[in-house]
Specification:
heterodimer; A: two-stranded antiparallel sheet; B: 250 residues; alpha/beta; Rossmann fold; six-stranded mixed beta sheet; four-stranded antiparallel beta sheet
Amino acid sequence: MNNFISANLPYLLAGISVGGQYALIAIGYTMVYGILRLINFAHGDIFTVAAYLMVYMNATMPLYISLPMTIILTVLLGFGVERVAYKPLRQAPRMSIMISAIGVSYLLQNLMWYVTGGLAQQYPTIPFISNTVRIFGATTKIVTLITPVLTLVLVMMLSLLIHRTKIGLAMRAVSRDFETSRLMGIKINNVISVTFIIGSFLAAIGSMLYFSNYTAVTPTAGAMPGLKAFVAAVFGGIGSIPGAVIGAFIIGICENIIKALGLTTFSDAFTFALLIIVLVFKPTGLFGEAVYEKV
Amino acid sequence: MSLLTVTDLQVSYGGIEALKGISFTVEAGQIVTLIGANGAGKSTTLRAISGLVPIKAGGITFDGREITSLVTSSIVEEGIVMVPEGRRVFPNLTVLENLRIGAYLRKDQAEINNSIEYVYERFPRLQERHWQLAGTLSGGEQQMLAVGRALMARPRLIMMDEPSLGLAPLVVKDIFQIIQRLREEGITILLIEQNANAALHAADYGYVLETGRITMEDTGAALLNNQKVRDAYLGQARKRKTRAAPVPEA
């Protein structure tokens, strides 16, 4: 019995942990979709850029500077991308802004190739969270234990922001009706910027937690977790924050259960099969937008 | 001096001239109505005043201040709020949250709570249902909420776009009573309506808008008796004319 636990617990813990990391990325997808009805294809690349920022900053600066600076610069990047690539297209058809998002995604990816020369960079070790611990006879990194806790704390704070503050009220209003929100005196562009800032902030945290599990960063290292997080957002019902979080944890845990069963090869396939199944049978996802309007 | 003065306002949408230079004024403390057929430019006029559509030419002054080029949030700050067509309450917010968002630009937290009480006094139904999602209210309740939400901004001018649209006749009567009461409290109202009969009965002054131009203006009562207006906009008047016995005015 003890053997069973010590053999399988790491998979479960890893699943919960990876789920938390997906959740932090997925929130960015789902919030932007909720407000702009845009799938921000650049979000996964912002997640990767955050990893490189950490690599380069940490090479020259102590951790207590490089870590907050990484977060700040990632947030600025997310904010800047919206201002430069999406804001001018506010009145354009939705397809235009989506193509712009794909463009930004490729731009960021190629910038990373250009700057790094395509070589894998070693991800810095963040002290304490990279240490290993033993629980129930299983060995794991502290980051694995911290991730779900930190994720839940951040999600709760976000939930308070959305439901208890004025900017949260504005975000909920804007997500429903741009024009009436403007008639209330809400500055739509500011609300949209705040959304991108929150999304990028969470992606930066997610990036630190995710890459602490790996030794190296490559320009495409964020593509897979980005896609998985996107699937999680769709699975949970895109536009819904609780949906994205629950979807992310389910996907993270299922992937690792599949790995525990010795079917590692199929763990990615599972996620994308899930996407197809969701799109076919319940396109609105677990918590898809309920329609309140009376017809 | 008039509260709102619109001078030679022109608006175009994608090559179509929606407003071909209209001028009108709204006096403080009055109910002024714009009547006209579908597509005459009534909604466009309100949207232009609110800064929702770009203005091609002309000027708008409010209480002596030039507001033509202001953004919507600044126009709301000046004291002009709109109750949009179809009510447009936020269905995903509660009744109370809808009221709070009406006070979005106000900073005086204590006063905001007084304003909520003020709205509840006028619309007790909203207090009963303050925790409900606005999307679950009936059409008439939503209209009350939309008016209450507008009041939360402490406006000097409320612009109403088709407040009676899609509501049951009894509810329409309520809405027009509310409009009268707002005027009694000193709020100026610019009302646009397809229900020209009700609008002209309520209004102190009215303008007739036809395909982007103002073709007639007079007091509400005078327009009600104007033969051209009766023929074009007061459908029942024509029926009466063909009958032998005239039906007394409501």
